[in-house]
Fold MSTO1 protein.
Amino acid sequence: MMHLAETLNFSGRKVVAAWASVPFPAVQGSSLADALCAHQQDVPWQLLSSCRDRKSSCCFAQSVVLRGFGKERKQPLSPLHTCEGTEQVLQHYLHTAFPGACSTSHVLEQPCPTRPPYPQLFSPLLSREGFLLDKSPHSSSAAVESIPVLAALQSSPVLHTLLYGLYKDLQKVNPRRCLSFFSAGVEEDDFHEALQELRTLSECYKTGWEAGESEDEGDSA
């Protein structure tokens, strides 16, 4: 994970954000192109990292892995449907949703198993294979045995909010009142130096979009 994060970062960046879709929303019997065409405005995965999601389709680099889709083909209905194979479909979608970003993607046919002791916390509208049913089940549905899953790591501007917020919170800490700081061998000068490094790191994720926002430039260390 550490080496992957290093690969995705450049220009002084060190942190990545995690995204996932568990299960990935796709109707039973549909292709990956069908599923992605239903999400042209918002990507079908959610931010897991503790920073505010601004629904910005912008990132610097990302690595995306999707599990649980085979090689089925449908009649061409959109540019996504003309791609050769599921991995090309996902790559085309990423280039469209995140223009200019360095995106790598992998598609694995094997889904994620959810048999016991995995908790059965899924909606009854899911099939045994974890796909959305196109109609309500007639009776109590069988336990979900596997699910398609998408996971992504992104070097993204949303991390500016997280890192800058952490900097602001730590700025309020008075290390002189925390005896554990000094008993652990932390010097006050080292603390303030690390604090400034955190702010500098947050600036590495700032884009022109965030530059227009008002931030307290009169921070006192």
